[in-house]
Every structure is written in structure tokens, then in C-alpha cells.
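Quick board copy: two proteins, each given as sequence then C-alpha cells.
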Amino acid sequence: TLGQIRWRMGDYLGAQKLFQEAVDLARNLYGQNHSDLCAALNNLGGCLILNGDNERAVIILQEALTDYQNIYGETHPGVGRGHVNLANALQAAGRRDEAFAHYEQGLAVQLNTVGPVHLYYAKTLAGLGLCRVNKASDGAEVANGIEELRLALDLALDATDSDHPTVAEISLKLARGLIVADELEEAEIRA
């Protein structure tokens, strides 16, 4: 779509406008609880995060998740993605406890649908690990989050080549976690 082209070009405000038009059109054509509306809401929510409108992204992505659940039940891959997208928005909004719960739910759905050696699963596990590190109140929780990040990177490398963008994204999340853990030498290597 034109919105996705704008997104890939880095024009997030232009993409946001087009994704909002797609949401409005899907809502007018189908009403609630339609997969096309869910896709449009997810695109809009992702753009809102990139544009810093995190609380609005939470509202939009919660609507998409609810619609996915109403359409497919709890075990569909779209529901798993919906949990992860909402978790990303909640994390960006600083609502880490809520984000953590949605990462866990998304991970559970993905484990049962795509399995652990899949980029979606690895990426979600990395989101969960970084969220755990960022919300940790003690060193043990930070260590657990770092282990999740390391496992996510290993799973991604098992699923694809080392030069894949998702591997780089997970490696950067691991570096961010290592900075929190004050493991700066390894963080520099991972970054």
C-alpha cells in the first residue's frame, strides 16, 4: 500500500495519514471485527509508536487485538502478533508491567503456532527479555532478562543468516540490556 511505501521511505507522518485513511475506509466497509480493519489498525499503531504518540498507539493496538480475539479466538497467529504489537506500544509508553504480560501472551501463542526456531518467536522473546531488564528491581531479574535476550539471539541465528535485519535488531536489544547490566565490553561488541 501507499502507507507502507511511505513507511519504508521513512515518512512516518505521511504513512500515518494514509494508514488512518485505511482504518476509516475499513471501518466504513466492514465495521468492527474484520481482519482488514485489524491489519489497518496494526499499521496505524506501528506508525504512531514511531511518531511518539505511544498512548494513542496503545488504544489503537488494543482495539486491533480485541478484534483479532473476537474473530479468531486466543490461539491464532494474528492474536499472538496483536499481543506483541500492543506490548511494543506499552513498552514505548513506559507501561512495562502491562507490556510484559502481553509479551508473555504473544510468546505463548507463537510457541504453539510457529515454534521457537522462528524469527517472530525470537523477536518476541527479545522484547520480553529487554522489558524484563528495564523493569527489573534486582540483579537476578536483570540476569534473567539477559539470558532471554541471549536465547533470542541464538534462536534467530538458528532460523536465519547472521546478516538478517532481525538478528541485528535482537543484537541491539541485547546490547541495551547489557548496558543496564553494566556489561559494557560485551555491549559494545553486540552494538
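And the next:
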Amino acid sequence: FGAMLVDSTTRWAGGTIERCLGVGVIVEGGSLQAKQLDVRQTWAGELGMAVLAYGMIIAGDATATTEQLSVSEVAGFGIVQDHANATHEKLQVKDNENVGLWLQASSATSSQPALSIDTSSAITNNKGGGIFALASGGITISDTVISNSREKPIVSASGRAAVTMADGLQVRISRARYSNRGSRASRPIARCQ
């Protein structure tokens, strides 16, 4: 790990986490407020070690608020969010060997959406897709570029088969809103029950 934050309240201003084995930053419970944080070059296991790579994991009912977070060149997933809430401004997730941002089992609370990405954000050049949301609701994405997703086999939720994907945004069993700056209305892009 580069940094492991468990059930803590953390404010982080500036810095770089790089060349870590496994996970760059994990936030398990508690909260993180981060500004100008760069997480890059997180590696998967080597020399026979079975270690997956993640730039950042936000999990266990954690709440994360970031501004100018960059997650890049990860040998696996850029950001994984599981049972947590996150708000990102000026987010950059790029050049990762798996999905840029994987969201699962996360729901909005009365005070925060499950996931909010806003203000000049970009999710680019990730294998398998830009954003994948599974069994999550309360998602807001605006003023964000999702581009150049590259094909990669992704194991299905049932674990039975790999499907080659390169979607910019894929939402399953959730609610999401898309808004375009300058537009007065938001229109739903996914409604599943």
C-alpha cells in the first residue's frame, strides 16, 4: 500500500503516491478530503505473487471528496468504489490497464450522491471502459470527457465468462443522471429496476 486510511478522518493537500505494489490509496470507512493528489504506477504482483492492482479503493461506507485527483498508469483498475460515496472535481483517470472507475453497491445518502463527477474531469485511455457502475444509484456526471476506452476482456458479474468491453460508460441496475453544462435540464440515461 501507498496509504491505508481505516476509519479515519483525513485531509490531504498535495502529494504523489507512486510505484506501489497492489493499492496506491485505500479508504476503508471514515472520510477523505483530498486536493491535488497524484496516484500513479501501481503495480500488480510479480515474482509469482497473486496481487491485483488498484490506484484507489474507496469502500466500507467511506466518504471521499476530491479536487484535482489524478489516477494513472495503474496495472489494474484506476478507482474502485464499493459501498461508499464520492464526489470528484477536476478528476483525471487515465492510461490504466483496467476500467478507469468501477462503482458497485453504492447508494446516495440524504447529504451526498453515491458518485458525483464534475468540473473539467476526464476519464481517458483505460482498458475495458471509462466508468462501470453496478448495482448503484445516485450517480451524477457532468462536464466530463470519457474517451478512448480500449478493449479488454472483463469477467462477468456471475464469474462465468469474460466479455470483451470498451464502453465509455456502462450502468447496470442503477439510476444515473447526465447533464451538459449550459443545459437547463438533466435527462436520465439509465433507469433500471
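Board note added afterward: The CA atoms of residues 156 and 162 lie 6 Å apart.
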